[in-house]
Batch of 2 targets.
Target 1
Amino acid sequence: MEFGLSQEQTMLQDSLTRFLGDSGSLARARVFNANNEGRAPDVLAGLAELGVTGLIIPEEHGGVGLGLLDAALVSEVLGRHVTPAPFIGSSVLAPLALMRAGSAGQQAVWLPKLASGAAVAGVALSEATGARENAGVTASGGRLSGRALFVIDFEADVYVVADKAGGLHLVAADAKGLTRTRLPTIDTTRPVGELNFDNVEAEPLAAAADSAAVVRFLIDTGRVMYAADTLGAASAMIDQAVAYAKERKQFERAIATFQAVKHMCAEMAAALEPCRSLVWYAGHALESLPAEASVTACHAKAHTSEVGTRVAKTATEVHGGMGFTDLVGLHYWFKRIGLNRQMLGGPEAVREDAARLQALAA
Amino acid sequence: MELSYGAEHEAFRREVVEFLQTHRDQAPGSGRGASALAWQKLLIAHGYAGRTIPKEYGGYGAAPDILKSRIIAEEFAKAQVSPGLGGQGISMLIPTLLEVGSEEQKRDIIGPTLRGERIWCQGYSEPGAGSDLANLRTKADLDGDEWVINGQKIWTSTAHLADWIFCLVRTEPDAPKHQGISFLLFSMKSPGIEIRPLIDMTNGHSFNEVFFTDVRVPAGQIVGKRGEGWKVANAILKHERGSLADPNVMLSRLNGIKELMRSETIDGRRLIYSPVFRDRLMRVEGEVMAMRCNDLRLLSGAVNNADVGIAGMIVKLQTTELRHELERLAIDVMGEMGVLYGEGAPHLRGNGSWQWNYMFFLGLIIGGGTSQIQKNIIAERGLGMPREPKLAIG
């Protein structure tokens, strides 16, 4: 029995941490934001070099062939460093859609490009978890019409699109009739956007026996990835709050000696540490415990979001006025956690999903 | 990640299940009657109680195997069969003696204690020594070959049922406070002991105040040397990692709330169809699930001797607070029905266990190191934050 990370998994996190540390995580995120960049080619190239872009793609298609727990561990490190790079859409959900629902030909075309970082894939999945503003995409005769909001990894070359009937499609970013609009959000490290389809040519991803089940699996996986990103971001915020409290002096002593401040930090750590165990379990369950995977993914997303939101607030407060400034930059993590919370279902929506899955709702 | 226990342990699980099927009709209810003592003997003989205690001291003598101990606990809980006797003699004194007791103490005390023939209480806390336990004042002076004990203990669980007490007393008044304490053992039938019940908010009588007036105890009834009592009392702390929580109990309480929500109605409508209550239920479920995963991580850490960092330090704080909140949800689900209490109350649900646990777990939030002390420990030992500077006195 072993509930924990293997040596290889720890090494994966360590090597990624070294790379992101060297390339200056917050500094790079600031430049990305200031220049309104769509992609950070240097960061993407580094991630490709480390095998992160091809993490879950089979070796025969140029990837590393690792699992979804490994992907969650990468997501955690990216969140920890507020890394301005595509991952959840382009390196996890899109490859997964191709691997589970794509034809051999589609896999042979796209998987090597995603693995090498030569192409980025966006994922339009928001409406499958609850449509706002009557958005939604319908497929007819190989063409798509309608609207998809909150597309993940929006600055992409190709999109995986879920339609209203549970079908999945591939759409080129330059397809005729496709209008792309970036949606500015609080989180400036990961672009999201809106796609408008006016009779757009699309390739169906139709090799799966049950396409709706694949969509469900993408949602579950995406939720675990966002939970992991929040876990990383929140633990970085706790570390910064603790370090700041040890440094900052008021009333002739480090504020870390005040119990009021200490207890804020202890509460954050005590609430977040079980989330780490939960995210590991949920990442493991996706591929190894199929009967539990969906409910566990819901709880990982909802609970980690709730704790993450509390940590984001409290860690900012520990910094006093400086926490509110751009100077310290703590708000990059605050906003990353804020975006993760809402994507693919906020806590209430996801908990309702967990209740439905257990036949507890009407 | 490998969550299976493996072939050897699954075979062991089958043995336990088989034992339970064969013998479950002999299992006692609550209490310490003759059937409980007979059951305890049977469990020791099969290695389901006193499992790792050496044979010569009255145990079963198995090599420590954390997973096997876990399997025993899981299967007894699943079968809702008594896992044998508990109490502070078995859970605290025996491990302490195994760690630091003399050969004579091990031979004389462990066997009868394990078999339930000698019941113990623990004399640690005092009115002026709660969170600051080392501040205790009950004193023992050596007079010839006897200690003479004077002072008061409080929160003494089961003192009114106990045959003996293991007690921290101050024997070296001039030494620094942690170095002036000794660990004594003596009979609760000794002249000069007065026990007063301390009724708790559940109406229960488990706690007592115990007063000592010139209680005379043979000088040899000491564990460790004079002044080593603090070390003796802490000798078993290192075994305690993660042992406090049983997330499986929490899970079965959670399932109880689901049942309650399926059966309870308001205006004829089942509570499970109330989105507000359902959301609270799912919220608690997520938290329980997180603590269950955390527990698996601690178990794995103990089995594989791996460092689990802060994950162990947070268990007392998180589980007691969560359990209190969980019981609260059940009370709210019942609405006005939730305030019913006391044996035989009309309309009472779950035998009043929801209110009882709700209050009892508030006690556990405070007892054994308050939530505030837990937060200090997490901040100082877990996060490396500095201690509060001591006030300059005088």
Target 2
Amino acid sequence: MVKKNPKSSISEDDTEPSVVNENGKRSAEDQNKDGAKRVRTKSLYRQPTVNELNRLQETENLFNSNLFRLQIDEIIQEVKIKEKTEKRFQQFFTELKNHLLSIPQDGTDYDLSEETLAKKLKVKLPISEKLSKTKCVFKFHKFSNVEIVGSYALGCSINSKLVVDLQIAVPSETYTKNDSVNYRYHKKRAAYLAYIAAHLSKFQSIEELQYSYINDSESKPVLDFKPTGKLGNHLKVRINLVCESEAYKLHRFSPERNNLREAWLFNENSENATEVGPPTPYYNSSVLSDLTATENQEFLNETLQRSENLKQAVTLLKIWLRQRNLNVSGHVVALLVAYYVQTKRINNIMSSYQIVRNVWIALKASELDTKGISLHKGEGPPSLEEFHKHFPVVFTDKTGYYNICWQMCRGTYNALKRECALAVEMLDNGKINSFIPLFMTPVKPLLKFDHILRFKNLKKLKESVLSKTSKEAKLNYGVEQLYLITDVLYNLLAKGLGNRVDLIQQLVEADFSWAVNSSLDKARIGFEEKLSFGFVLNPENSINVVEKGPPANLPEAEEFRAFWGDKSELRRFQDGSITETCVWEGETMTERRTVTKQIIDYLLKLKFAIPPTATYYMAAQLSSVLARKQWASSHVLYSDDSSLSVLQAFDALRRDLRQLTQLPLDISAVYGVSSVFSYCNPLPALPHPAPSRPWQRGNTCLVKDSDVASMPEYIPVCTAVIELGHSGKWPGEIHAFRCLKAAFHLQIAERLATQYSLPTQAYPTHIDVLKDGLVFRLEIGHPKEITLLKRELENGVVKFRESEESVKLQCDTVLMPRLRGALHGLHQKHPSFGPTACLFKRWLSAHLLHPHFPPTVAELMVAAVYLHPQPTQPPAEPTVGLVRVLSLLVNFDWARDMIVLDFNEDMSREEITQIEQKFASDPESAPCVRIVTAYDGTLPSVWSNSAPSKQVLARARLLANSALQYIEKAVLQEYKDNILGMFIPTLSGYNVVIHLHPALVAYSGERVDSSPSLKRLGDAAADVIPVTEFQPVAMYLEELTSAYGDFALFFHDTYGGEVIAVLWKPDINDDREFQLTNANALKPVTVNGETKYRVNIEALIEDFRILGEGLVKDITVN
Amino acid sequence: MKATKRVQDFKCLPLKLTADSEAPHTIYMKEHIIREHTKDKPQGRTLLVVNVPPYADEKGLVNAFREAGSVQSVQLCLKPSTADVKVINRFIPEPNTTTFRAAYIVFKKVAELDKALKLTKLQPLNSEDHQVKVGMKKWIDEYNSCIVLPKTLKENIETFMKQFDENAQKAEKKEKELEQEDDEGWVTVTKRGKVQSFARTEKVENKIMQKEEKNKKRKELKNFYTFQIRESKMKHIVSLRQKFEEDKKKIVQIKQSRRFKPF
């Protein structure tokens, strides 16, 4: 018989716990339990059972896919609270309840403005200094019950960081009629909590008894503690005080009512001033949430208790929210689900997948900020419009008086809506396994936001903001200033940035807990709340330099001027309109990316006198890596700007080429191949001035064999492929073909020179052309050459086989041009792609990985971040882009998954599956980084086929991980603006270090750690092609790898590295077998009279010196 | 390396670049003896050397063995091979790979080979009139020499094409001759003959096979008999099951990597 294992949901179909669709399907399953005893053939052709058919069908209809369903089952299992824990907690709770209910009655009246109560209780009261002017007399009335509420009671809690909510209803006698005003209610509530705390401190089986302010909510403390023993490892307990609903009539707390007197807050000395001020909806809600808690909890129990699927859906939604770091409590989610059940948007027959999906779709389309929703039906409570006047987000509860979303900021709501939209998009995208990004991937602020604004000194900020806000607002928020500030700043930022940002989200870290027997003020020393705002930029609008306002003659212009202050000026535009306008700095693309920062700095200064030094702005920290250090024009040269000028020159050249006459075959197309054509080259070619006194042959300079210092500077070429018109006359033999190709090169070079008087130089393999001071290298690409290379004769039959040479040629002349075009398109769509790729390549190279981690693979990884940004959107800022690529490198499961880069939706699901199966069937020969593009054709993952190796990948992941930790620490804790430390490699761990002459190293002045010394670019050379692609270090490295690749690995920083680090292979010291064909570098050694063979390491090191004569300065052996 | 040792049949000697090299490589040499000798590696006069360092060139090796006698030719190759080296007429020469190589050194006289095998010390590769080209000098030289004037390039192309055309003509002539009936009346069928035949490539063969298969399939009836209908239904279920099984496997894999811990 099949062994049943109820724990694992995937063990056997029939033993599947009935997680889905138990309504009506129970009977079928029960039947099957008997059926399980039947001897079954394990084959695929066995007769299906009713249950199995149902399940297979259900999966097709109710779930996205099998995989999705199985994954949901798994995750639900995973987050479920273990039965053992539940049992233990039940036992603990019974004890706790008995203890709590044994609390003695106390008839004494305590004046809360004195210390008597605290002295008697021997615990401190969780009341802040700000409430000291509230005077009231407190008398303890015993409560009647302790209840488990919240997610634990509903059965939709998550086992990690589990907090079980207990609720105690304070008897209504505790409060008098007038206690609702001026925080008297809150003060008494705090005293009541202290009373319970005092009683609990005598209870043996708890520890870490603490008061907590949740989200800096100073008026409403809660009591946190942990059960002792093993149970404490799994969960915490939180006691929340609510109020019996009979205490007050709810309408006293309608949004329009005032319950906090101006006189009290602004210290006008008379506690009993009766003048009623402006409405205090926020204050009111804080009382209402206690009054309505019981009723709402009952409603939730009623709705959710019955249906497993609804509970599962709520759990899933909670996991999703937590992964997204959204400040939306499980309570609100549960109530939202309940609302959609009430409105019949979802029902309990739906599968959890369908419920979650429907909730997302509903939330995506919801407009709680303008058209609120209510759980209450019928007349009575104030209208929703009234709520809208006072709250940014409106969702009223069962009673109709209490706005469940009273603490939700507009930013949070917008973020929630946005995430819902993204979630639905992910579900609908059939090409990815949407489960992983939806539920398994945590979205950290650093990954999600393009820019982050942090305030360094919150106390000062509070003061400066408060001094500029209206009395009404201050009154409404009372002592809870953080909410007020967040709200004010949010509104300012939202207005100032407008459509430049897609999302502004506040990030508040203000939860504060302290032990019950220490006083609040003492515990608060050293604690500071943290406030930051994250921005997701709109890639198009955010780089706009001009902020166009209304026309000058309209009344709105006045408002615009008032908002922007001196920055606003009148401007006349090309279309004839004269409008108020703000203009920001932005000459280069990199500068334009900081317009958002400029605006924020300006507004904060203007409105609240907060200087830029008081804030930390995480955005363009790495832009210096993208800037040239040796050359400048009128401004600093950034890689994307230089790339653009290369592209412009290339376009002109392309036009010239197409119009060439008198060629036997026309030029039908010219494709860019070099990485500069997709903005991916960190140090693109610059128009260099003509060399002085050149030694030339033809049109090209030669290298003078003189001293080291006068070697020409490295000038790269930009490679492109020429496609000729069709002809059937190409020879069918490879060498003759190449000869003819050379003839074409010669002719094209001649024509270019005569028709456009461009300096050209023809080679057998390519043509060099000088255009606008840049050297372009053109090569004719023809598919026949590849075919000829592949041709093989076997038993008289012509067969075509891939060879190393043919694959290389195919990559260079066919695949790369297409891929380059696609990457160029990607950059046009996401202008941060190029700079991100540059950063990533520089990072890899800085850690000496570049030769082992092919640049194309690096570019494709970056492309993956843009094409598969789930669970976020493509980044608009290169620094964030780099963080994302690094975290992709670290978190992606390279051993199991592959990345599909389908630039234009060309690949079908079947093709992808086929490739996947191909790799799965032959895991040995599959590359360890599998990135398949739509252009790979018959060679899937061709770019990463030979490199990086497993070891290099592991090393890159290790480095990426520490780089991420470094950034996180530097940015989120230390407010560092210089995070270049992540580009500094370590040379320890290498066996041999070869030091090179700096003058012979390409880009030696462009190293990340070298300081800039800018020279102005002069007039570009026009009549002679300079020495190009003369890179001694590259040639040296090539020789080293080809000669000694069997014994060692060589590491070098392509962008100006002055050392080559050598790592021996681990078996370097082993004894070797002497073979005729493999005697390389062996020396005979006599060990115990026997002759053995070992690798001659000393000779190898001397060889390094010999091969690099003139280039190597020194060699150190570690 | 003071003493030279005989290992198997090989004799080992250190080979220095210059006289003051400190850590030279050890080269291994023996007489080149195989069953059938080729012309360029004559019997009795050829010395096989392995583990020749990457920077060594022909002239350098001549220098190294100058004490043994005069060297007729030096042939460097990647792996020792007995086959005759075929000369292919290449337009673009094969790139030189820098690596350890094997060398066949042919001496003018048989006695010189014996002398070479008895050497206890080799001369350095560099001598006064020959310096091995390495490092910057080599790279500069390579760079400069690859730049040719258009005129020279044109000449190169013309001579190569002329030779190629001649060869092609020769080949054609040969093929034509084959088409003539031989003594016993046989005719060889070639590409260019009167008798048309299909090209013998993989693609064409595959095409023919596919056609055959198609023809076979056309004759079959599908969903005609009851058992066929039943089978096709079963097949649907099987495919669903297969997908399910595959997904289950995937989940097990994911589970093994403990990826279901969301937090």
